Each structure stands twice: as structure tokens, then as C-alpha cells.
Amino acid sequence: MKTLRVGFISAALLCLTGASVFAQDSTFQMVSMWHGIPEATVSAVGLASGASGLDEVPGSLHLITTKELKRFSYTDPLRTLRTVAGVNITEEDGFGLRPNIGLRGSGTERSSRITIMEDGVLIAPAPYTASSAYYFPSIARMSSVEILKGSSQIAFGPQTASGAINLISTQIPDVETASFSMSHGSFKNRYVHMYVGNSVTSGKGTFGYLIEFLEIGSDGFKTLDNEDPTGFIKSDRLAKLKWSSPVSASVQQSLQLKLADVTETSHETYLGLSEVDFAISPNRRYAASAQDVMNTEQTQTVLTHTVAPSKRLEIKTDIYRTTFHRNWYKLDRAVDSTGTTMDLGEILNSPDDFSEGYSYLTGSSTIGLAGLDVQANNRNYFAQGIQSRLIYTFGKAEVKNRIIFGSRFHRDLVDRFQWRDRYSMDNGTMELVTPGIHGTAGNRVESASALANYLRATLHFGDFTLTPGLRHENISFERYDYGSSDLERLGNGDYRVNNVSVLLPGVGLNYQISSALDLFTGVHRGFIPPGSKPQTEPELSINSELGVRFSHRYVSAQMVIFSNNYSNLLGADLNASDGTGSGDLFNGGSAMANGLEFELAVDPFTDGPCDHISMPVRIAYTYTDATFTNAFDSDFGAWGDVEVGDALPYLAPHQLSLVTSFEHEKIAIDISGRFTSAMRTVAGQGEILLAESTDESLIFDSGIRYEVSNHLNVTLGVTNLLDRAYAVSRRPYGLRPNMPRALRIGVSVNI
């Protein structure tokens, strides 16, 4: 409260002085960021492409602009997305390296139940075969982020149950541009981002380029018992080349090539702490996690051609390929002195009952047949395809109707070739005893081929805009499991196939009550692919929403009621969810997720004597009630024996965020707060047990931005301002903490 009082007093004093550089476009920024997106932006972005206004976007669209991304300069995507209503997140490592994101109660397991794209292209390592893989684009190099929920989902698959997120990378500039940003902070957190680009016009057209580099890293905020490293380093490199036809050309077209690669080394672990140890030292890491490290490399190649054969027709085609290799070398299990395997989760849940195993985790020397097994989760992925979207415009000049047809042929694959190494523990130091034979802990190849088509129309009838659509997915999954007996893969292995064909209709309706007020509704059929296991059926759902949107001058607001009715709910056998790590999907029962989203953006100083300053305030609240609607038994640890009315785990019923800034001339003070209620970690109902829940949290971030000149800015930021510690997760093994208070100072130069 003291911080807020200081802010309001500061704002009052600023009313007495001159004009504000920051305030000049704050109203535009505030309103456009939420719902009043200008036509030029809407027509360019991926999720709303083909629309000329929000009345033509079925569902709820939210755009996080470049300016908003720079406000706090987060490198953690979860901190960026937490200001958007309807977004469910579960923290894990404190840095956002392994994001768990869901939309509207869909579930957050490794972001596997939403469609994630970069520049409109699927970006998960294998979106059909293994959508829960450990890669998420670096938010720090993005120019904007789009979040779409609702009936527009028929255009963006394969996961169409709840929503899609599209990350827009840095665009090729129109003029010669160079940018350099860097920051340094607590735990040796570091960030360097630079790019150069230009566009040159000649008689043969416009040629543009962009070269970009990003590196983020940290020494880590957790402390290993033996003081080994717990930090990470992640590097992105990207280049774009583009040619656009001359303005005088009879047919307007462009061709762009995008090349990117990302490398990461992170000393992260799934091993958390026992309840007692977490209370004493939440940032501790046991000695048995000393060998845990993830090494990854991702590449992306996209060739994009856009052509407008006529004023009524536009065609955009992407040819893309991504590759991803990762090897997460991490503690998998403990073995006692008799050679009996012990589950890590059971040890940490009941350390007194598994005292021998607990002693090995905490550094005591192993005896007899005891040891620690570290598994190399070594996997290769690729995804490739061609997608094309056709937009045909017709109707009167003042009221344009549209038909959008999209088609994509896609193929992806995951190749698992894994092993376990046996270690002993010698007074806190892990020593390799028996190297594992490569392939003996997972030796299989799984792939998917998919043809997806959709048709969507935008039809205007006076104040009504109708947006019907239909999507068809035809998928063939295959798996060859060679097991530990055919490490050379000379035979055919254990083969299985699963073919899926599904029709997904949807419709949206917008009614413009006035120039400032819109009422919208929509319903669509959601879909989650079932994977290669023939006995597993696709998850289907009926998703509906009813909302009202208001946007006028300095106020923008939206409220949406949503309901998602799931059948054949899919769970995934993931290490992250305390499973075996097979990656297999399995059907649970039916479930219902109902909720409410409310967003408000306002700048009270837009008019009146203080219009030379700016104090934009943005509030987002989400209520989610997600429960199972039938009883069933499950081996999935987070579900267990489910009864009707049990709440789904890892979904916070209440989320509230508030972001405000005090901006005047060359200085701005930013404050962000987020409240998240406690989440169940196991399906259930009634009173939430402490041992089966995460902590509720209230976290504040703050920052100061100072404009030294038109080309130079300096920033000072603090995350977790009050240094609150809480448990963010109990899966898969023990409790894990949030990041403690961290200070950073940064500088950015733009030429």
C-alpha cells in the first residue's frame, strides 16, 4: 500500500509540470493493446489475419504490443502472459524455461493442450506427435504476442479445445535500424539482445534484411548441497531476408526467408524438496540432483510467399521445417541397499517411511546394492510442412465480406533413444558406477502425418457480423518400438497405428450495439489429437462463450463468460506429471470448465488538467471452475480415483493481475501485481489439503524507466518486490519454489 500511495502522490505532483513524452500515445497504447486494434495491425497478425476489425474476429483476441513487452522486459513468458484474462499458468523452474500454459481451464501440462505458433507457423517440436516437448520460443526477442480464445479456434490446430498463442518475431524494419539492449542483475541474471536491419527500394522492388541475436542466462537462485551450478544459458540467432515487388507492379507479391537456431544448457531438475526441508530452505537443491542438466538445440527454416493476384484475392504460403534435439540428463529413481527401486515422489512425500532413500538424496553415502539412476532422455524431433491461406473479399466497398480457406500438410516425428547411468553417492558427491547402454531406457520412433483444411467466412448484416467456419483434420499416427532387444533397429519393432478423421464446426456472432459497445458470442467443437495408441480416442469438446466489449477513448473493457464441455478428456504420461515418461495419451472421463474473464484498461488522466501525464491502469481477473462430470479410476497420479465433482488439478480458481504506470516526460514508474489462489495438485473436492495443493501467492514487480535521449534508455527493475516465497508445484517429485526477489539494471540503445 505504501508503494501505491507514493505513486498517487507522485502523479498529483506531476500534474503541475510540463508535457509527457510517455503520455503522448498512452491512450492509444492502452486501448489498442486490449481490444481496439487498428485495421493495419489486425490484417497483419496471424491469429486475426484476414479481418479488418474486431467484429470480424470470432472469439476473444488479446494483443500484447511491443511497448507492453518492453515495459518490464521480461525474459519469462509466464510473467508476460499473467496479465491476460483466461490464461492459466503453472510455474516450474522460476525462469520460464519450461512453461506450463493453458487457456480457459484446459490444463497446463507442458503447454500441450494449446496451439503455439511463431509467426503463424507451428513451433512445438512435434505438434501432433509430442505437443508437450520442452521448447518454447524466447519471449525476449518477440515484437508482440497474440492470444486467441473462442470459436476462431477452427482455423488454428491441431489443438483446438481452448485457444492459441502466436508469438510475432522482430519484423524487418522499413528504414536502417540498429538496436542493442542489455541488463544484469541478481544471481548473475543477464540479458543481451541486439539486431540490425534495413529495407532498400529500387526499381526491382524492396529488399529487406534483419539479423538478430539474443542471449539470456543466470547462475541460478537455487543452491546445491555441493555448490555445483544451477543456472542456465540460452542463445537465439535469427536472420530474415525479404523481397517485395515494386508498387507499380501489376501483381503485388513478396518472398521472405527466415532462418533461426536456438541453443540452451540448463542445470535444471525435477527433484524438489520435502515439506520440512522446503519450510527451512525453499531454494535448496539436494546433492542427488547435481548431475541434472538439459542440453537442447532447435532450428527453424520458413519460406513465405504472399501474392495478391487482384484487389479481392490474397494468398499466403509458408513452407517450413523445424528440428529439435534435447537430452535432459536427470535423476530418475533411487535404489536401496537390497536393489529395490524407490519412487522419488514417494520418498519426498514420506521421508520418514523411506529414510534410506531420503538419506541418499541428501548426500549420505550409498551402501550395498544402493545407487541413484540418472536417465538420459535423449530425443530428436522434426516438424515440416506446407500451409497456404487464401482470403477472398467481396461485397460493397463500405461493407466487405470475406471467405478464408486454409490448408496445411504437415508431418512430424519424435525419435527416443534413451538410457540410464547408475551413480553412487560418496559423502555428497555423485560418482558414475555403471554407464547405461544407449537405447535400453527407450528406443522407439513415433510420427504423424496430417492434412488439415478449414473454411471460414465473414458476413456482414447491418450491425451483425456472422463468422461461420468448418475445420477438417485427417491424421495418421505411427509408432515403431524397437525396445532394448533391437538397439540397432534392424527389425520392424512393435508397430502400431492410429488413424483419426474429425470435422470441427464453429460459428461466431458479433452485434455492434453502438460505436463503443459490442456483444459477441460463439460456439465451436474442440479437439485434442489422441496419439498413436489405437485404444485412445480423440478428446472432443463443445466450447461456448458470451461476451461484451467496450472501447471508447480512455476506457477499454471486456467481460466474457465461457463454458467448455469435454468428453474423453486426455491425460499424458509425462515425467512432468509424475508419470513414467512414455508420452502416451490416455482417456479419462468427461469434464466441464466454466468461468468468467474480466479485463479493464483505463487512464484517468487522459482529459482534464493532468492530461500531460499518464497513469494507465490495467486489471485482469479470471475465475475458473473445472470439475470432472463422471467417476473413473486412473493410474495418472494427479487424477487417481476420480469422483463426480472433483476439481481438476493445477488450475487456480482465482487469478487477478493489476498493472499500472506513472509516466511523465522522461521518466516512468511501473508496478505489476498478481494474485493466484491455491491450486489442487490432486483431483478432489471440499477443503483443500495442504499436502495436496500449491500455495496462494501475491507477487509484485516494479520498475523505473528513464529516457536519457531519443536513442538511449536506462531501466531499473525488481521482480518479487516483497521477496515472497511459495511452493509453485508438487509435481513430479516434491515441492519447488518461485524465484526470490531479483534486481536488475539495464540499458537500451536504438539508432
CATH-assigned homologous superfamily: TonB-dependent receptor, beta-barrel domain
Q: Taking all residues together, what is the mean pLDDT?
A: 89
Strand content: over 45%
CATH class: Mainly Beta
As residue ranges, the low-confidence spans are 1-43
CATH architecture label: Beta Barrel
* Strand runs, count: 40
Question: Given the structure, what is the number of helices?
Answer: 8
Explain this structure to me?
By secondary structure, the chain is mainly beta. It has one domain (2-750): Maltoporin, Chain A, CATH 2.40.170.20. It has 8 helices and 40 strands. It has a 22-stranded antiparallel β-barrel. Strands 1-6-7-4-5 form a 5-stranded mixed sheet. The longest helix has 13 residues, at 2-14. The radius of gyration is 26 Å and the shape is globular. 50% of the residues are buried. The model is unreliable at 1-43 (pLDDT under 50).
Quick overview of this protein structure:
The chain is mainly beta and 751 residues long.
